């Protein structure tokens, strides 16, 4: 009985396989008959892909990939909003779509605008003549900038003012320029200080203070001219040799012949 049952199951599987094959063949034959009927009627199906510039019945470009995210009516409504002054970026953010998707939707509605900033804004000016801010808002108002300008023109340094207001020096300079400040010849130290001399004729120190006074420098010069080596004097004073040379030069030492 077991052998008979097994044979019957094999036979059942074979019959099911034949039925499936016949179903596939039947579907293929139906497709062949449909195509043949179209050929006889004179409506041959086009070969290959449709043309790239194909249009749908309503005149819109034919979508070959995923379906459009918005309908044609919605695209027209978005176009009206953008042409009314609303930015495409804010509209895209509101609808939670990417900016390229927003631009493509607007173009479907016949929008001829440009991506990015509209022309004319680049050269726009606000009422008081200051340049329009295109990025983050200004850190200080125009009135505050004018007050800072008065302080700097009164003798206060831009660096100390920036430090007090806890802003960077470039931010301070930009704020002053908004108030019409023309600045010094160079940022930071005035040009006249660079070549300034003290009353005794020695060059003005622009960095850290001198390690030795002018009187000490003159005393060291006398010791060197008396025969003492610069290296031994530097070692005795626990300073570097370049510092020793700079100190001696301040005292008018011209070096050995």
Describe the protein's architecture and organization.
Mean pLDDT is 77; it is low at 119-126 and 190-196. Helix 3 (88-95) crosses helix 4, helix 5 crosses helix 7 and helix 10 (230-237) packs across helix 11. The protein has eleven helices and no strands. Among the domains are: 72-108; 136-196; 197-250. The protein is 52% helix and 0% strand. The protein has 257 residues and is mostly helical. The protein is elongated and about 130 Å long.
Q: What characteristics describe this protein?
A:
257 residues; mainly alpha
If you compute it from the alpha carbons, what radius of gyration comes out, rounded to the nearest whole angstrom? 44 Å
Rounded mean pLDDT score = 77
Distance between the termini: 128 Å
Number of strands: 0
Low-pLDDT windows of residues: 119-126, 190-196
Form type? elongated
Helix content: 40-55%
Number of helices: 11
Q: What are the secondary-structure elements, in order, as H or E?
A: HHHHHHHHHHH
Q: For the report, how would you describe the main beta sheet?
A: none
The fraction of residues assigned to DSSP E strands is under 5%
Derived structural class: mainly alpha
Structural topology:
Layout: H1 2-41, H2 72-83, H3 88-95, H4 99-108, H5 142-153, H6 158-165, H7 169-178, H8 191-194, H9 214-225, H10 230-237, H11 241-250
Helix pairs in contact: 2-4, 3-4, 5-7, 6-7, 9-11, 10-11
Briefly, what is this?
The protein is mostly helical.
